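Lab notebook, design round three. We kept the backbone fixed and only want residue identities now. Task for the bench partner: fill in a sequence for the structure below.
Input structure tokens:
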């Protein structure tokens, strides 16, 4: 594992993706920065992180024998890697919020951005950006849902140790992915899916409210919600949110 440490960068994902285009990059190369000035989340959402207090890094790895149509299992592998590490630290009410936010005590502690390169019908490589709130205790007022490991446990965490734990867990789950152990990944993911089987109020992108419950993830990676009339509807990212 090669680790490239930078003091400040616009985006670790953008930096690492550019590296892969210009050079031969070894498997599980990591780019990490103390200060990420233009961090990105899902659908170009901004990721805010205090310098030196958190983990903001990206990792490159090769994917083998995984069809593009099976991309949801890659998401399962990545989000479970972070979840399984954090589970050891007794964070309260730890869950994965679809597709890959990590929640603890109903607050967001980690965001993940996955960007794949394709080769024909298969995923060839992946660059995964992970923003984990670790020792930061003050967040902007417009981010009321944000929290950190320190805020939830009262403890200071060693960033280097956490980084290595996450990469080690990622290697294990990417092996499962490459070996097509899809049922193992899906079963583990669904067991810790936030609000699964809990009746909840949702809001569509058109601000339509409805009652339903999350029951799983469809073949194309969309969120499956059972409605009051017992029909099942699937939603993509940004098409639905908790009301």
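Proposed sequence:
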């Amino acid at each position: 594992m090669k680790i490239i440490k930078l003091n400040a960068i616009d985006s670790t994902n953008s930096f690492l993706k550019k590296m892969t285009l210009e050079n031969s990059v070894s498997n599980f190369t990591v780019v990490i920065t103390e200060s990420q000035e233009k961090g990105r989340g899902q659908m170009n959402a901004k990721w805010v992180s205090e310098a030196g207090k958190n983990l903001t890094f990206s990792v490159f790895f090769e994917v083998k024998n995984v069809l593009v149509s099976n991309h949801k299992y890659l998401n399962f592998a990545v989000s479970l890697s972070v979840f399984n590490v954090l589970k050891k630290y007794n964070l309260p009410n730890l869950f994965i919020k679809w597709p890959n936010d990590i929640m603890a005590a109903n607050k967001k502690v980690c965001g993940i951005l996955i960007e794949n390169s394709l080769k024909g019908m298969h995923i060839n490589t992946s660059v995964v950006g992970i923003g984990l709130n670790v020792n930061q205790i003050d967040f902007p007022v417009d981010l009321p849902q944000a929290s950190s490991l320190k805020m939830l446990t009262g403890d200071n965490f060693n960033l280097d140790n956490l980084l290595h734990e996450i990469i080690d867990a990622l290697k294990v789950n990417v092996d499962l992915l490459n070996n097509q152990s899809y049922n193992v990944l899906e079963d583990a993911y669904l067991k810790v899916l936030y609000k699964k089987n809990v009746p909840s109020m949702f809001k569509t992108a058109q601000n339509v409210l409805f009652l339903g419950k999350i029951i799983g993830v469809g073949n194309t990676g969309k969120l499956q919600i059972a409605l009051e009339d017992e029909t099942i509807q699937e939603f993509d990212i940004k098409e639905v949110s908790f009301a």
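Keep this in mind before ordering anything: The CA atoms of residues 42 and 210 lie 24 Å apart.
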